[in-house]
């Protein structure tokens, strides 16, 4: 029987039984996570603010990340999550259903803020407007939020996030993140950048030589960010890339390097075991870096939920699987054998 005829027959059977297929805009269903309560000594614990993004492609990863943070937190009821989404009303019910007792809010991120400033990169996912939302956290979050941890949606935390929150950014650091000074920093910018008479001078006068850092895990002092006008600095480099010269290839990360490299407060590497998704082109399997692990980050092309579903997972993807909240009730597997 031709595939089209088989699908038509299935649709007729569903109509006769009163069942309906999920529409393309309908989100997958997720199970409810366990409730997590504060442990002893949490009465004086500070509120830990965490920011993440929500979209259809990465929702499964975002919810897994939230679960991992809660599961390992000593004071989970002292956490507050700030989610940015282009369509908040679409995603709020999914978060509330999986985490009924979670303290959170969802804010609208207007893609028009960056649409005219985005240039193509080596991977299409890096060109999505929401990938640039981290630049606008200080503008979107309430002024009462003075510090926030930003997490990408392709990671899990396996340590108490309060330890990362306690990072000391005094006296005047704006941003903290694990740095990787062994990486070839020049490779993050094009030959056009390095051959220019003025562009490389942007790194002059920094506290230290510039080092690469991954923007998927950052502790951000929002008051200092606002006072220093850092959103506009990042936008300025995006405009150079878009209108003047192609100076980088990797989405929203190079502007952060241009503004902050050499001025970042270093954090232990254990807080961003990144690159587990492989490179941005092939997404091949990778091993952990040497040393202890507090956070596993599948940056790169390969995402653990996609590889697990396809039956071509990498060994480390098994460490992500216990946090997956996708509800496998057969509804979304209707055509698995067609």
TrEMBL record:
GO CC terms in record: Golgi apparatus
EC number: 2.4.1.-
Endpoints of the signal sequence: 1-22
GO molecular function, one term: glycosyltransferase activity
Pathway(s) annotated for this protein in UniProt: Glycan metabolism; pectin biosynthesis
Compartments where found: Endomembrane system
Keywords: Glycoprotein, Glycosyltransferase, Membrane, Signal, Signal-anchor, Transferase, Transmembrane, Transmembrane helix
Name of the molecule in the record: Hexosyltransferase
């Amino acid at each position: 029987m031709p595939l089209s005829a088989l699908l038509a027959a299935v649709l007729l059977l569903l109509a006769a039984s009163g069942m309906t297929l999920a529409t393309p805009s309908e989100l997958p269903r997720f199970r409810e996570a366990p409730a997590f309560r504060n442990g002893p000594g949490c009465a004086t614990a500070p509120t830990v603010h965490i920011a993440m993004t929500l979209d259809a492609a990465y929702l499964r990863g975002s919810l897994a990340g939230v679960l991992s943070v809660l599961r390992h937190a000593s004071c989970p009821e002292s956490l507050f999550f700030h989610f940015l989404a282009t369509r908040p009303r679409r995603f709020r019910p999914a978060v509330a259903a999986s985490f009924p007792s979670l303290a959170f809010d969802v804010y609208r991120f207007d893609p028009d803020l960056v649409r005219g400033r985005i240039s193509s990169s080596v991977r299409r996912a890096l060109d999505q407007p929401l990938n640039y939302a981290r630049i606008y956290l200080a503008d979107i979050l309430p002024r009462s939020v003075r510090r926030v941890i930003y997490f990408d949606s392709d990671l899990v935390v396996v340590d108490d996030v309060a330890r990362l929150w306690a990072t000391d950014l005094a006296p005047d650091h704006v941003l903290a993140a694990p740095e990787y000074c062994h990486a070839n920093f020049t490779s993050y910018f094009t030959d056009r950048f390095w051959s220019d008479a003025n562009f490389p001078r942007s790194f002059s006068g920094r506290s230290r030589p510039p080092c690469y850092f991954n923007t998927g895990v950052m502790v951000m002092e929002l008051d200092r960010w606002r006072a220093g006008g850092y959103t506009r600095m990042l936008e300025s480099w995006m405009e150079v890339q878009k209108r003047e010269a192609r100076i980088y290839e990797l989405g929203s990360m190079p502007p952060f390097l241009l503004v902050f490299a050499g001025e970042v407060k270093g954090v232990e590497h254990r807080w961003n075991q990144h690159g587990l998704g492989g490179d941005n082109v092939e997404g091949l399997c990778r091993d952990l870096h040497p040393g202890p692990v507090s956070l596993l980050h599948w940056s790169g092309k390969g995402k653990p939920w996609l590889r697990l579903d396809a039956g071509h997972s990498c060994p480390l993807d098994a460490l992500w699987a216990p946090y997956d909240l996708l509800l496998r009730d057969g509804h979304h597997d209707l055509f698995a054998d067609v």
